[in-house]
């Protein structure tokens, strides 16, 4: 079992009760969660909202990971965004306007959103994957499958950006501490 844990999620076998065609989505979301937790283990809270070289903060990426999954899954269900979801979108990256903006809170919110996403995948009938869906106020055409796969790839894109940001912040933090 410990050998299986060392493998990337997609190599560990199917995620229980997730339809076969949606396994890549589930694997990517679980991989994102694992990588985020590994990356941010012992991450200094004081670096959470810093913008090295003007890039998005670690806090923003965590807020956005949760928010974008919520929004894309809403569209995949054929629903429009609620006022609460729109407010969350506009507040992403602004810690002063978020009630819970500390690292443990952000990680927990992301974990809960991944759990909700996995449950939605389990409830998604493979026959519905090509069903049309509208995205945003402009009602841009997509499909259930397009939205679910984009949710997975978009999450992994932000995990990659998060990885670079964390390494830049931590490297600079360590260099500053060592030079002082």
Q: Could you describe the 3D structure shown?
A:
- With 180 residues, the chain is mostly helical.
- 59% of the residues lie in helices and 4% in strands.
- It is built from six helices and two strands.
- It has a two-stranded antiparallel sheet with strand order 1-2.
- The protein is globular.
- The N and C termini lie far apart (45 Å).
- The mean pLDDT is 92.
Distance between the termini: 45 Å
Low-pLDDT regions? none
Q: What share of the residues lie within helices? A: 55-70%
Give the H and E element order: HHHHHEEH
Proportion of residues in β-strands? under 5%
Largest sheet: 2 strands, antiparallel
The beta-strand count equals 2
- Shape call: globular
Number of helices: 6
**Strand order in the sheet with the most strands:** 1-2
How is the topology of this model organized?
Blueprint: H1 2-6, H2 23-39, H3 58-76, H4 83-91, H5 103-123, E1 132-135, E2 140-143, H6 144-179
Antiparallel strand pairs: 1-2
Helix pairs in contact: 2-5, 2-6, 3-5, 3-6
Write a brief caption for the model.
With 180 residues, this protein is mostly helical.
Properties at a glance:
single chain, 180 residues, mainly alpha, two-stranded antiparallel sheet, 6 helices
